[in-house]
Task: structure prediction
Amino acid sequence: MSSLPLALITGGSRGLGFETARQLGKLGYRLFIASRTVPRLEQAAQSLRAEGHLVSFHAFDMQDQDSIQTLVDEVKKKDAPIDVLINCAGVMYEAGNDDEVQTDIGSNASVLRSPERNVTDTIAINMIGTWSVTRALAPHLARGARIVNVSSSMASLGEMGPGYYGYRASKAGINVFTRTLAYEMRPRGILVNSVCPGWVKTNMGGPGATRDVAEGAAGIVWAATLPPDGPTGGFFRDGQAIPW
Ligand SMILES: NC(=O)c1ccc[n+]([C@@H]2O[C@H](COP(=O)([O-])OP(=O)(O)OC[C@H]3O[C@@H](n4cnc5c(N)ncnc54)[C@H](OP(=O)(O)O)[C@@H]3O)[C@@H](O)[C@H]2O)c1
Result:
């Protein structure tokens, strides 16, 4: 039995999810990381334990309802509810711009030429998956918990550029989820916010990104550790509100 608060981080096996777990571990949270690939989870858990953090993991797929139920079953085995839920797992299947078309957007990212799977699976995982996971875990959230939905300024309608329809739509959908869920969670004192980490050097962001993971994760941790009178239903980067 541990009295440390519990943080569940989807996508915690690498990139921003892993770094968010690390930073929350340093703040005294026990960590539960979850994503699809067991060897990556094992490696991540080993690294986090080597730094002295208390960590468990579970392999699941956000695109599969039965698999989400296995995550819930694991949570039920814990001795306490979830204090922080970080919805960080996500994909950007449109990232491979290798085929120059009329604009500088490769066919993978083109609105009209992107393969159907790029759009449907991205929305299924990022938007529907985040909703499904949160819905399934909602009964197991502590009163006053924090939910952070990792979004992207690529979903900001006011600043929207070309391409990446599936990714942009999926993250815009997550933002709608943040807004609507925030109302529903108010009676339980649960704060729900969307966070854009910026363009971060990860598997998804690529080596040309402008930020390192520590910088990107800091804004996620900020939203995960807001005081009880902190904002809810907002969209933030580095602790500052950004346009929808
Ligand atoms: N990097 C950026 O510049 C940037 C900018 C804005 C927003 N974001 C957002 O930040 C989040 C993390 O991105 P990242 O850059 O750290 O990417 P990443 O390194 O590719 O990590 C993605 C994580 O999600 C997990 N995942 C993917 N599909 C999953 C599924 N179906 N079920 C369960 N887990 C799944 C991956 O593990 P497995 O593959 O093993 O499942 C991995 O742990 C994403 O939501 C992304 O959209 C990133």
Q: What stands out?
A: The chain has one domain: 6-241. Residues 97-103 have pLDDT under 50 and may be disordered.
